[in-house]
Design a protein that fits this description.
Length: 161
């Protein structure tokens, strides 16, 4: 069981995002949760210096579509990193497993195919309360965590240039 606040991190350990460009793809399924993840991610990017002009937010119907939304960013936009935000909640059928498998493998493939960070900001929970707890609730906001990861990965890539 997760016990730590997902949003708790050492602010001084995060590089400046001032000159970085980000794409954010948000799934519309479980909108109450994914919109909170998106707000957290965008706020955190801005807190670390990213400008509105350098943050582009797009929407896809469900979590399964997140990798394709990310691929559109890779091919049609000049972003340094893409944050993929979704929420899959366990139901009575195995749909949960197939969506989780698709988005996980799809995201991994994008990272390696485009040599660019595609951040996995997907909640995979047993129930809605667990998701709410991690989308601005008592366990923080996974959107914040995804944004910090994106900034750190862009800085890492730039450090090799
Ligand atoms: C169909 C479906 C189901 C049952 N559950 C979720 C969910 O919990 N979270 C989510 O983001 N999307 C869900 N979807 C929709 C799929 O992600 C996808 O949009 C459809 O299967 C169409 O490809």
């Amino acid at each position: 069981m997760a016990t730590k606040d997902l949003s708790a991190y050492d602010i001084n350990s995060v590089p400046s995002a001032e000159n970085m460009r980000f794409g954010v793809v948000v799934a519309e399924w479980n909108w109450e949760i994914t919109s909170a993840l998106a707000n957290g991610a965008v706020d955190t990017l801005k807190k670390h210096g990213a400008t509105d002009e350098n943050i582009s937010v797009k929407y896809v119907p469900g979590t399964f579509e997140l990798p394709l939304g990310g691929q559109y960013f890779a091919e049609l936009d000049n972003v340094d990193a893409v944050i993929l935000l979704g929420c899959v909640i366990q139901g009575d059928t195995r749909h949960f497993d197939y969506i989780c498998e698709g988005v996980t493998q799809g995201t991994k493939d994008l990272n390696l195919k485009y040599n660019k960070p595609f951040i996995f900001g997907v909640l995979t929970t047993n129930n809605e309360q667990q998701a709410l707890d991690r989308a601005g609730g008592k366990l923080g906001n996974k959107g914040d965590e995804a944004a910090v990861t994106a900034i750190k990965m862009v800085a890492l890539q730039q450090s090799f240039k």
